[in-house]
Amino acid sequence: MSDKRYMASENRYNETMSYRHCGKSGLKLPLLSLGLWHNFGDVDSREEAIRMLHHAFDHGITHFDLANNYGTPFGSAERNFGNIMKSDFAPYRDELIISTKAGHEMWPGPYGDGGSRKYLMASIDQSLKRMQLDYVDIFYSHRYDPNTPLEETMGALSDIVKQGKALYVGISKYPEDKAREAYRLLKENGTPCLIYQGKYNMLAREVEYTAFPLAQKNGVGFIGFSPLAQGMLSDKYLHGIPENSRAALSHGFLQKNQITPEIIGKINRLNEIAAKRGQTLAQMALAWCFHQPAVNSVIVGASSVKQLQDNIDALKNTTFTSEELWIIGEIAG
Questions:
Q1: Can you tell me the mean pLDDT for 51-59?
Q2: Could you say which DSSP state residue 242 is in?
Q3: Residue 276: helix, strand or coil by DSSP?
Q4: pTM over 0.85
Q5: Which CATH superfamily includes the segment(s) 3-233+284-318?
Q6: Distance (Å, whole) CA 279 – CA 310
């Protein structure tokens, strides 16, 4: 890190970033968090990854979100982040929130997937080794595992905190009834759940009626992923499916059959509202997430510094009129 970089980092909180308390805890999260699911693996540009992490931190994004199986191949995002952390960010460890998760398949065989104590304990140790860290700030159970008793999964999370390997724990994508039970168990264990991570965007609002009320009742924060609906809430699909887009691929979470004429019509109407606000559709979609006070942060992914800055620029206008919110709700459904 150059002297110029140090100077820039000293001034990063003077940018447009705002912070919200995570649930009823004393921990604040930036409105935008950077997710390292894509673009930080061994198949990606190391130079661009470094530039994105620097740009994020210098603009007040203090939270980097990972998981054990992020990157191609699995584990490479954590390993690459760890190398960059050691070389560029070590002096700023106490100014960073670093989260990781375990719950999806990570290695073959009976012990590399799910919510067992065996898997979670092995995963946190592996993650810390890859990232060259003594602890993470947040460790998540990445998904509910119906084949493992919740007492076992939550007990492992609690012990990970008590062993000093994580400061806080969270859960991701849990059904409402299982989240309620998880909150109870963690509280009884003396390690209250800090945060719930779930999908949230204009086209996916189910959590407003499930996760939000339950989290607020239990003092748990909420962080949203997929705020742009895998790119659908951007200008990429306004005129159909481009050849180089995610939906054009034969694999992945976004499939061609999801980009229906109805969806294209919706995003074009939403794009018209964004233009009137002086924003791109993606910027408005990000800004919209914050009209809900239950949302503490949203996770954005980026493939370049330019794309990341476009996301950060969404914070220049996060205010919506009642009429705008009503129209967006009518269009998005």
A1: 97
A2: -
A3: helix
A4: yes
A5: NADP-dependent oxidoreductase domain (3.20.20.100)
A6: 10
